[in-house]
């Protein structure tokens, strides 16, 4: 289990494909993906444009490079850059390319820099001194050390740093305090201990913390509860967190979002969190999500977005409690294999829902038909467990959901015969049809019927 477990559950993991070549002769490689047009614009500085192009060429000698350019700025400068090292290309992976990071100084408009699975120690981060517009820095799955974070210049607009699977310890984390606007920090390194958590109260702008690790305990949660401006907390641990640690979060009055992935906790511990006035989004994953806990959640009147899952402890009986949370606008039942079609009758009572995800859950046509009263839905994910069958019957049963803008049917048993039914959802902006029986011709026909929709096939 790692730091991206939440991301896997609620949003997406980003990763890189590693390919092999002769380690002695690194060859230039074109950008893996380019979401950019060629630089242009009458006001562009030709020297700056050439410097960027030269820098990309240099980086491509040792990294996979993905760029995104600004369509509105003169010269369309690179504003987002992702680097990935093809580890197996360089033998045992001990070769490092910090010196090559000198090319990054050619991107003064850069706002986001993602270095994932990169062969760097981080000392080359000293070359980021001119990136005054940088707001996001990701260094995940790379052998970055404390020396690397020490080499990182103080960046005036840096707001988010994401680690995970690096060699950073408490000493490296202490270096991040130099960035005055740092709001979000993500990590799961075993060398980051309670000492770092205790220091977060002194980070002037820290509002979002995503942390996890097998060794985390009550001590870390109690330290987090003393971060005065904390608004969002994602925290996963094994079995060293008790009611005492959870109850300490009751003092974080500004908390708006809470994500917990734990093995076990008593429902009574959550009662202390009822009084958090700003807590609108809650994600709970693990065996502690029981019917007793869900009964407690019915008292959390401030929560509008709820995500539950990971296992079989969430059952139809528990959904009966969720049905009482009439204020909910978003509900995710992620990999909730303990719920059945019968439980969807309870979900169908949540008529204020704008978003519903049943990703990986054990629901079929019979259950989905019970959602026909959710006429306010804007987004619906029907990517259910592979052994269930969501077919065109579900689409026909949901024909009243005329406000739908996003529909995910990944892996569903829908086909070209259902294209006209899909076209009946006139407000669709995005529909996912990957791994369905829809043919390329069917997907193209839907694009013509819904010209404003993005059809993914």
Structural commentary:
The chain is of the alpha/beta class. Among the domains are: 1-9 and 26-192, Leucine-rich repeat, LRR (right-handed beta-alpha superhelix), CATH 3.80.10.10; 319-457, Leucine-rich repeat, LRR (right-handed beta-alpha superhelix). The protein is 21% helix and 17% strand. It contains 15 helices and 18 strands. It has helices at residues 5-10, 46-59, 146-151, 170-175, 194-199, 218-224, 243-247, 267-270, 291-297, 316-322, 344-347, 365-368, 392-397, 419-423, 440-449, and strands spanning 33-35, 64-69, 78-84, 112-115, 136-138, 160-162, 184-187, 208-212, 232-236, 257-261, 281-285, 305-311, 330-336, 355-357, 379-381, 406-408, 430-432, 454-456. The protein has an 18-stranded mixed beta sheet. Helix 9 (291-297) packs parallel to helix 10. The longest helix has 14 residues, at 46-59. The protein is globular, with a radius of gyration of 24 Å. Residues 1-37 have low confidence and may be disordered.
Unreliable spans: 1-37
Number of strands: 18
By CATH reckoning, the class of the domain at 1-9 and 26-192 would read Alpha Beta
Structural class: alpha/beta
Helicity level: 10-25%
Strand content: 15-25%
Descriptive terms for the model:
18 strands; alpha/beta; 21% helix; Leucine-rich repeat, LRR (right-handed beta-alpha superhelix); 457 residues
Task: Annotate the secondary structure layout.
Layout: H1 5-10, E1 33-35, H2 46-59, E2 64-69, E3 78-84, E4 112-115, E5 136-138, H3 146-151, E6 160-162, H4 170-175, E7 184-187, H5 194-199, E8 208-212, H6 218-224, E9 232-236, H7 243-247, E10 257-261, H8 267-270, E11 281-285, H9 291-297, E12 305-311, H10 316-322, E13 330-336, H11 344-347, E14 355-357, H12 365-368, E15 379-381, H13 392-397, E16 406-408, H14 419-423, E17 430-432, H15 440-449, E18 454-456
Parallel strand pairs: 1-2, 3-4, 4-5, 5-6, 6-7, 7-8, 8-9, 9-10, 10-11, 11-12, 12-13, 13-14, 14-15, 15-16, 16-17, 17-18
Antiparallel strand pairs: 2-3
């Amino acid at each position: 289990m790692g730091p991206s477990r939440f991301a896997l559950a609620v949003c997406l993991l980003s990763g890189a494909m590693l390919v092999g070549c002769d380690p002695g002769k690194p060859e230039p490689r074109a950008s893996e993906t380019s979401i950019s047009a060629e630089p242009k614009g009458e006001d562009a500085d030709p020297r700056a444009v050439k410097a960027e192009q030269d820098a990309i060429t240099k980086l491509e000698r040792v990294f996979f490079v993905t760029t995104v350019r600004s369509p509105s700025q003169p010269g369309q400068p690179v504003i987002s850059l992702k680097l990935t090292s093809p580890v197996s290309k360089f033998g045992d992976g001990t070769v490092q390319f910090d010196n090559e990071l000198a090319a990054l100084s050619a991107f003064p408009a850069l706002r986001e820099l993602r270095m994932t699975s990169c062969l760097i120690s981080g000392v080359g981060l000293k070359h980021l001194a001119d990136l005054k517009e940088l707001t996001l820095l990701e260094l995940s799955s790379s052998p970055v050390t404390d020396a690397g974070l020490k080499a990182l210049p103080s960046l005036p607009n840096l707001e988010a740093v994401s680690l995970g699977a690096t060699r950073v310890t408490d000493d490296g984390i202490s270096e991040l305090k130099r960035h005055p606007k740092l709001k979000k920090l993500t990590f799961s390194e075993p060398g980051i201990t309670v000492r770092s958590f205790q220091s977060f109260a002194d980070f002037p702008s820290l509002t979002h913390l995503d942390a996890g690790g097998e060794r985390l305990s009550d001590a870390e949660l109690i330290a987090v509860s003393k971060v005065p401006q904390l608004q969002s907390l994602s925290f996963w641990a094994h079995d060293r967190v008790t009611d005492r640690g959870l109850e300490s979060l009751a003092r974080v009055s500004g908390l708006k979002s809470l994500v917990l992935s734990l093995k076990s906790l008593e429902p009574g511990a959550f009662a202390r969190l009822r009084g958090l006035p700003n807590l609108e989004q809650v994600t709970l994953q693990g065996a502690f999500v029981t019917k007793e806990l869900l009964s407690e959640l019915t008292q959390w009147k401030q929560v509008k977005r709820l995500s539950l899952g990971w296992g079989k402890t969430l059952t139809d009986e528990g959904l009966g409690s969720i049905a009482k949370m009439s204020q909910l606008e978003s509900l995710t039942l992620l990999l909730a294999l303990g719920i059945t079609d019968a439980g969807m009758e309870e979900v169908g009572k949540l008529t204020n829902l704008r978003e519903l995800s049943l990703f990986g859950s054990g629901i079929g046509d019979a259950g989905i038909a019970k959602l026909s009263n959710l006429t306010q839905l804007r987004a619906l994910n029907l990517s259910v467990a592979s052994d269930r069958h969501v077919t065109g019957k579900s689409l026909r049963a949901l024909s009243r959901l005329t406000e739908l803008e996003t529909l995910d049917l990944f892996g569903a048993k829908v086909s070209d015969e259902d294209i006209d039914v899909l076209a009946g959802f006139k407000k669709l902006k995005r529909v996912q049809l990957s791994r369905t029986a829809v043919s390329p011709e069917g997907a193209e026909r839907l694009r013509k019927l819904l010209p404003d929709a993005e059809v993914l096939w």
